[in-house]
Amino acid sequence: MATARLGFLSLLAAVAFAGLSAAQADTQQVVATVNLSGFTNNSIVTGFESSDVFDGYHSCSTGTNSNCSATNSYGSIPKNIGNMLCLPSGMSYSISASCQSLIDAGKSNSCQKNSASGRCSGNAIYPVCNYRTVDNTGVKPTWTWNLSITNGVVQVNCSQSNYQGYTQ
Fold first, then answer.
1. Whether the Cβ atoms of residue 69 and residue 33 lie closer than 8 Å to each other
2. What secondary structure, in 3-state letters, does the chain show?
3. Can you tell me the distance from the alpha carbon of 165 to that of 102, in angstroms, rounded to the nearest whole number?
4. Which pLDDT value is given to residue 147?
5. CB atoms closer than 10 angstroms to residue 90
6. Could you state, in order of their start, the residue ranges of all structural domains in the chain?
7. Cβ–Cβ contacts within 10 Å for residue 22, how many?
């Protein structure tokens, strides 16, 4: 009887482990990246937060590096993600027209407001709306902030990949 019980428990453990491995394989990694070109600043932060009630805020700081990436994996997709960039107070910046277009998408419509708004203590730059990830675990939805500096003014460019667009 003890041998049968041990065998049954081993079988259950194997099934549970196999299920865990399969569940991990069926996740989608969301990424927010900031790249600095020609300068460094340890107070620049990028991050994101989904609209899920129990999701946390995922962020990184460039520190003395020229880039960083915040990541999190989600098992239930698609997700509504609020992306953001924090620049230090007093830092002068200019946003490119193409980036401003992404930031303003959905502004005049009734969109789902950015989940990460209010996470920044300095100059907060973030899309008005959450963006919805694609429904495909084989791709990484990514929001990228590319920053360069010209005459003391930070030039902000942004792009996204593998998002469906802003969340209505």
1. yes
2. CHHHHHHHHHHHHHHHHHHHHHHHHCCEEEEEEEEEECCCCCCCEEEEEECCCCCCCEEEECCCCCEEEEEEEECCCCCEEEEEEEECCCCCEEECHHHHHHHHCCCCCCCCECCCCCCCCCEEECCCECEEECCCCCCCCEEEEEEEEECCEEEEEEEEECEEEECC
3. 9
4. 98
5. 7
6. 28-166
7. 9
Nearest-angstrom CA–CA distance, 1 and 23: 33
- pLDDT tens digits, one per residue of 64-85: 999 999 999 999 999 999 999 9
Q: What is the pTM of this model?
A: 0.83
Pairing state of beta strands 80-87 and 45-50? Answer: antiparallel
- The answer to whether 52 and 90 have CB atoms below 8 angstroms apart is no
Q: What is the mean pLDDT of residues 31-44?
A: 96
Does the domain at residues 28-166 carry the CATH identifier 2.40.10? Answer: no
Say if residue 2's pLDDT is above 70. Answer: no
